[in-house]
TrEMBL record:
This is Nuclease associated modular domain-containing protein. The lineage of its organism: Bacteria, Pseudomonadati, Pseudomonadota, Betaproteobacteria, Burkholderiales. InterPro entries: NUMOD3. Residues 1-29, 41-51 have a biased composition (Basic and acidic residues). SMART domains: IENR2.
Amino acid sequence: MDESKLKKFDRTGTKHSEETKKKISEAQKGKKRGKYRPRVKKDNKPEGDKQ
């Protein structure tokens, strides 16, 4: 992340350790398609025509 993005949040002294960074990145990888968010078919529209 570059400095301009960090300044937006303005949280000083909240840098993650390397160990924590690894855990976070692992969690991010599995987030989109996990146990509770199964793969959705592309042709399904999220809302609107539900039958």
